[in-house]
Amino acid sequence: MLKTVLIVLFCLSAITSLALAAEDSSPDALISLVHQDCGSCHGMTLKGGLGPDIRPGALAHYDIETLSTVVLDGIPETAMPPWRPLLSEADAKRIAEYLLRGDMK
Ligand code: HEC
Where is the signal peptide (predicted)? Predict the structure, then answer.
């Protein structure tokens, strides 16, 4: 029960700050969104926390299309939420590229 409450709180705080960030999708804004909002579960350095490690080495088996789908749709029946309401497909793709390469154009 406590775990569920914590997960919901994580999601809410992530979604609130993300909704603000989504208005500005400059590379800097997307990178800070990844570290802060995704980082609330995956760790600020993305090495894992409530969610798994999402640094490039851990995601090497993904291609960009699949990875951006995971970001947009989440992983059903897990704590990984869908970001489609808050991110455009283009932004999700840029995040996927960032996760795989470790930098953003
Ligand atoms: C509320 C917590 C939470 C937030 C916020 C969150 N994730 Fe996740 N994420 C998870 C969990 C938990 C999993 C593991 C799901 C499972 O059991 O398969 C996961 C899985 C993933 C995976 C798949 C990892 C793999 O090895 O297959 C990726 C990629 C990912 N998240 C990216 C992101 C990105 C990018 C963001 C920000 C846009 C984000 N996540 C935000 C909780 C979260």
Answer: 1-21
